[in-house]
Amino acid sequence: MTNKFSAKSTADQVLSGVDLKGKRFLITGASSGIGLETARSLVSHGATVVGAVRNLAKAEAATASVLKAAAQGEGSLELIELDLASLQSVRACADKLLANGKRFDAIIANAGVMATPFGRTVDGFEVQFGTNYLGHFALINRIEPLLVDNGRLVVLSSQAHRAADVDLDDPNFEQQEYDRFVAYGRSKTATSLFAVEFDKRHRNRGIRAASVMPGNSLTDLPRHFSQEGLQGLFENVGKARAEASLPPAELKEIAQAAATSVWAAVVADKAKSADAISKIAPSRRSMTHPTRLPTASGHMRSMLTKPSGFGRKARNC
Q1: What's the rounded Cα separation, in Å, for the pair 225 and 231?
Q2: Pick the catalytic residue: 23, 188, 252, 270?
Q3: Deepest in the core among 44, 153, 222, 282, taking most CB within 10 A?
């Protein structure tokens, strides 16, 4: 990997001198936060970006800066509706992309929710697991043929994966008390392991997948926290990093956080960046099913075919 960039580098600095004309990217959650800045930076360097968003009307207003950058950089932005918490919406989005037939040089799975109150998706899955992981799992596997040979998949995860492993026996908190931080950690562990398995399965086409931690930045992701709760979160992150012998966390500007995504999707040595993630699976601690997690795709496909609705509620909801 290159040492050219640092935690202070911005997305535009990472892409400096890079011509992306003729390149096409899919970004989920492209209307706010890191996804918005990722889209803006890519189109400003000539790329075509398809932004998958939950609310088209709001996104059209929110992406004005991206459209301006696209006009100046000879790129373009298209919006497509996607609600990751609805498998019907996921299928509709995927089918529309497949019908269009245009291929992608990279897919950036950026959208997500964090530490939400207990809830279920319309299909009956716990909201964080269903949105952050299952929605992306269903979408990306369905549109995989659109990813070009030697393309890239970038999945945004979090250091929260250290907080919890995936519980395949009770992913929806039907048999245990709901903990929003555990639920978030499970979803991010799952996304990282999905990248490991996707990379393994599609490497024969030259496709590489990587899971990235963009860094801590003040987007609307932690909107379910009070100011005190957010401060407590940063303190806990600091303690966890110290225990893991990692340097103290620094709050990033959104443009700096987006640098991680564009680096992995465009300029990184894809062999080295993807191979690094393969170390995640054997390093996971206290796995619920250590031999099943990296290859749980069949189990997840089975979950996604279950009828919506679950009989029991989480105990404290």
Answers
A1: 9
A2: 188
A3: 153
Q: How far apart are CA 198 and CA 295, in angstroms?
A: 10
Of 157, 187, 211, 261, the active-site residue reads 157
* Catalytic (active site) residue 133: no
Q: What is the pLDDT of residues 233-249, one digit of tens each?
A: 666 666 777 877 877 76
One of 32, 184, 187, 270 is an active-site residue; which one?
184
Q: What is the chain's percent helix, strand, coil content, to nearest 5?
A: 50, 15, 40
Rounded to the nearest 10°, the torsion over CA 259, 65, 22, 253 is 0
Q: What is d(CA 270, CA 154) in angstroms, rounded to the nearest whole number?
A: 11
Which residue type does 316 have? N
Whether 188 is catalytic is yes
Q: What is the mean pLDDT of residues 287-295?
A: 37
For the ranges 29-43, 123-137, 202-216, 221-235, the lowest mean pLDDT is seen at 221-235
Contact between 33 and 221 under an 8 Å Cβ cutoff? The reply is yes
Exposed / middle / buried, residue 104 (Cβ in 10 Å: 0-12, 13-18, 19+): buried
6 is catalytic: no
pTM attached to this predicted model = 0.82
Predicted confidence at residue 136, as pLDDT, reads 97
* DSSP summary character for residue 205: G
Give the pLDDT confidence score for residue 285 in this predicted structure: 36
